[in-house]
Amino acid sequence: MTAPKNEMKLSTFTFHEQAVHVTVGDKLGALDAIELGGEILVVLTWLGNQGEGLRKPEYVLPLSAVRHQDLSADPTGPCKWAINVALPRSLFDGTASRQVRRQFVVRSGPPLTLPMKPVRH
Predict the structure, then answer these.
(1) 58, part of any domain
(2) Is residue 40 part of a domain?
(3) Given CA atoms 69, 121, 60, 18 in this order, what sign does their dihedral have?
(4) Long-range contacts of 50-53 (CB under 8 A, 24+ apart)
(5) What is the pTM of this model?
(6) Pairwise CA distance, residues 90 & 96, whole Å
(7) Residue 89: domain span
C-alpha cells in the first residue's frame, strides 16, 4: 500500500539555540539551528506570535549549502558550527534578491512551532 501524495511525514527535530557562529556584514553573531531529517537548518528569521508566545522559522539556510566547520570537538563551547563566509545583511532584513537567496540556497522554514523563549529545565 502506498501513502497518499498529500500526506506529510513529520520527523523529530533537535533545536540548537545560538549554535552557529556567523559573520553578517562586519558583525559577529550566533544563530539558532534546527536539526531535522539529518539536515542542519540555520534559522535566518523567525515569525513570532506574541499573543500565543510562539514562533516559527520563516527562512532557513541549509548548513551544507555554505562553507562551514564543525566546532563540536569542544563539548563545553557554546557553538556547534561556524559558517566560514560572511552572510549579507539582506538575508536577515527581507531585502535579499532572488539571486542572493538562490546563491545561499535560502528556503522557507519547516512547519514547526516553538515557544518564544526556550524552556529551561
Answers:
(1) yes
(2) yes
(3) negative
(4) 50/116, 53/115, 53/116, 53/117
(5) 0.83
(6) 5
(7) 14-111
